[in-house]
Design brief:
This protein is of the alpha/beta class. It has helices spanning 11-22, 34-43, 58-68, 93-121, 142-165, 183-187, 198-210, 220-228, 234-246; strands at 2-6, 26-31, 48-52, 75-78, 125-129, 170-174, 179-180, 196-197, 215-216. It has a single domain, classed as NAD(P)-binding Rossmann-like Domain (Rossmann fold). 50% of the residues lie in helices and 14% in strands. α4 runs parallel beside α5. It is globular and about 50 Å long.
Amino acid sequence: MKALITGASSGIGRDMARYLDKLNIDLILVARRQEMLEELQKELNTNVKIIVKDLNKLENVYELYAECQKENIDILINNAGFGLFGDFNETDLDRELEMINVNIKAPHILTKLFLQDFLKKDHGYILNVASSAGFMAGPHLSTYYATKNYLTKLSMAINEELRKKKSHVKVCTLCPGPTNTEFNKVAHGKFSIKGASSEYVAKYGIDKMFQGKMLIIPTLMMKLGIFGLRLIPYRLQLIIAYHIQHRKTKNN
């Protein structure tokens, strides 16, 4: 088998590559930082190809698909993404548009194109890495939450379409809560509660993907939290989210 992972140079993507390597699955690893990809490549034992691409540029997304179309990909993992803390009226518009490209447009394009290929052979896995943020709105992190809502709901809808088709192709969504990665550094904030290890989240996500689970939510705390949202009015959800995110900002 062969897997394509975006955002593979660090965090969950890197640990997914390490776990898939242990499962003897060949890899194509994609990220912006060549040096980090090369370091990861050296420690892995399977056949590993690295591709340096900035998925903010949509022409690179199409180039990535074209480059990998003949690689006989079995697993697509859309992991690339980032966040940005701050009030919506103050955050940088250009940076937010880059986030929409990386968090929404890139996985949308890759999911559609590879799904069409997977359906032809009636085999394949697509794992879209979203977030527990994909189930609610997030003051102070509004655009990020919105992008993860998009990816979560898109993946769920495709999953149902495939189920109705009785397809053997699986589209799954990984929705972790706080995870110890570079997210805080990039987003200019910090978690207010202890995060899970990226190694745990990566392994859990891969294992559940192979089981074909539609929504993959690591840790009991996140499962209970997401279930509890069904019982809480939207205004109260927003108040809770505001206070959680407010404590993350470095200036507080």
